[in-house]
């Protein structure tokens, strides 16, 4: 039944977990890894999305406090809980607002995106452009000299308009290689959030967006994926994604406390150039 070995499932799970919440594009990395392994087609595309479940669980565990705050706050806001938590209710509302644009556009353009943008050349382009954008934002932040403690806003200070801007820019990441984390983090910084708050909100909106995408893809193409690979690679990949996502998220949070986003910008540009050379020389098929 399975055209995917256990070690391929582990590799893809690790790639998913390490890159899902970093601003480098998990989809782009997964497509590159799948092409290198000779895995392609609807089943492979569905697998790459469904193993996101492991990465979702990782963030739910690491940010359980924030998730609980949002859930209890929303229950209090609609009268299902006596205690009120305006900050929690606002967080839940902002997550919904930020999710709506992706929910609408993702449903409308899912098939076209897979048809036209799931090639290596579009991904390489997105890697390089996104890398340059990260470097530009990093320079802008340095020149602007935002004080994280005084001027920049935290999650509790967000407005629904800020959340909407983040949600709209998140839609750009439907282009594989762009990175959902990149767009939401950069959008958060641009609307006035501190880098730490932008990263945290990026993780939280990622849970909502990735969960919806995973459920949608599982319903839409899950039978095709299971017929091609079976349950074992799915379980192995999800567990590997969970473990590596925990490591990646913890590392990124610690790293960004003392450094900016420039490292990720240089990495994206370098990776884009390397993959472009491999395509031109015939090592990879674009």
Q: Any overview of this molecule?
A:
With 286 residues, the chain is mainly alpha-helical. The chain has one domain (6-280). The protein has helices at 6-20, 26-37, 42-50, 52-62, 64-77, 86-117, 120-144, 160-170, 180-190, 195-229, 231-256, 262-280. Helix 5 crosses helix 6 (86-117), helix 9 packs antiparallel against helix 10 (195-229) and helix 10 packs antiparallel against helix 11. The longest helix has 35 residues, at 195-229. It is globular.
Helix content, binned percent: over 70%
Shape: globular
Please tell me how large the radius of gyration is.
19 Å
- Counted up, domains total 1
Structural class: mainly alpha
Q: What order do the helices and strands come in, and which of them pair?
A:
Layout: H1 6-20, H2 26-37, H3 42-50, H4 52-62, H5 64-77, H6 86-117, H7 120-144, H8 160-170, H9 180-190, H10 195-229, H11 231-256, H12 262-280
Helix pairs in contact: 1-2, 1-11, 2-3, 3-10, 4-10, 4-11, 5-6, 6-8, 6-10, 7-9, 7-12, 8-9, 9-10, 10-11
Output the keywords.
12 helices; 0% strand; transmembrane helix; antibiotic resistance; cell membrane; 77% helix; mainly alpha; UppP; cell shape; 286 residues
